[in-house]
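Note to self: keep these together.
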Amino acid sequence: MDAQSRGQADEIDPADQWVLNPQTGNYELRLDHSEGQSPAAPAGTAGAGGRRKKPAPQDGSATPPGPRSGGRSRNAAPAGGGNGSGAQRADVPGQRSRRAGKGPAAESAAAPGRRKRKPRKTGKKKALVWTGGVMGFVLVGGSIAAYAAYEHFNGNIATIDVEGAGSGGFKKDQPVNILVIGTDKRTGAGNEGYGDKGSVGHADTTLLFHVAKDRSNATVVSIPRDLITDIPDCETKTDSGTTVIPGSQQVRFNTSLGQDDRDPGCTMRTVKELTGIEVDHFMMADFNAVKTLSTAVGGVEVCVDKDIDDPKSKLKLKKGKTVIDGEQALAFVRTRHAFGDESDLTRIQTQQQFLSSMIRTMKSGDTLTSPSKLFSLAEAATQALTVDTGIGSIKKLSDLAQEMAKVPAKNITFTTLPVLDNPAEVVKATVVVNEAKAKPLFSMMQNDVSLTEVEAKEKADQKAAASKQEELLKGDKADPADVRVDVFNGGGPQGSAQETLNWLQNSEGVPKSTNKGNAPANVAKTTLEYAPNQADQARALAEMMGLPASALKPGTEDAVGLEAMTLTLGGDFKGAGVPITGAAKTPEGVQKVEADKQVCSK
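Structure:
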């Protein structure tokens, strides 16, 4: 009798058979009416094409039970070999490995015997044990039931080495930036009709998940696949060594993955070039992720404002709220013709609404207190994901998840990179970045300013600085045409002085500005030096550039004649028109979906 059958015979949830051994501090698989050894957890190995091959149980060992009742365990190998789960990953370039399962159960199997089991915990205590292991990030910001003791799950995780593409690893006292990539690869059972036939696995859906340093808020930016951008040169590791793949100019963003053998590290580098934000890690999944994760949580509630019957995506829904999972969940996030103007941008908003609902479901009490759902989530998540080697273990994913879980759902905001129709096209098929709106958005993320306008606790020095700035900016401001300033580059990107000059003269109406080239020495912070009789000019320029109070350096002697103020761009300068302090609010017109609010798709 296998582990699931034993659990059913005694009316025990299969997931409940994994219990904490107080003597070792580890979880072990315990089967009722059995006083023998703890069975060994299976070892996951990587076969050809990334398929898992599970060894047959020996000496009474059993695969850790999944959430299903009856039938074969999720990990049981079907006749003829192969991957019984159907969650085969997309083949993408780069060296990828799958960790072999190991852990406490396997170690205990070698022991000559086992200490007599203690009485079962009460339901309340058991729930605390299980929910204590719940982590806060699966695929795109929900919860991962990754029990650190379950080394079995390590065997599910596929990894790709993209060393050099990211920051080198997230830190608990710093902001966290995770790139989530959904590919259009037709891998996995039942997915033959989805995506582009023969696709090498392009970046079909891409989200940059930014979590603030104090974990008070998170911003998730969707990057349109049809965005025209530059892709930089990137190193890709293969079985034969490391090769440099030449970059491409003015191509679709989705070709940053798969095309010309580019791996996820190329997409990470492209996102950094595009946003100025360095990515710490990536997570990648194919179509199966949506199907398995939505099923694992018992379905995700969505809302539509009309009856839907889309023959292309096969999405069929009645007007109002519906709980969907599996194939219908995938159809919901794939449809382009059911809502809005039937564009990819509308599809992105639909995906954001779905993901927001999934986050609410994963954080709900119904999920956190259900052992079977938690186990199912852990199994589905680890089988669905391919990650970089920096987080390619349950322990590292758990550390990351704990940081993600600190962000309340009400402070998680989804948005889309601001774009415009490509002016070079007569028939509009692609988009370009809307620089006027994108730069302030990136500045907000870089400065941890929430799109939901959440006010985290301000430190005393922040309050003092804000008060000082308000005081300095009080009073009349000069007309932009009367502002006279010399611009020096003292640590900003190359060409910053000329870029700022162009912006001041062409966008802000400051003709009396001059590019003075490089400053005598580099400085970390941008500064504006001015005379007492130039205070009105300083106030006007500070308002235009979003300069903090600490940047304003008043002198003691009045300026004479046509003497100009001195603006020195420091290492904190991100670009002309990007506030040094970070935008105070979301740029007008930027689309938002807040994770704690349900929106009906139209």
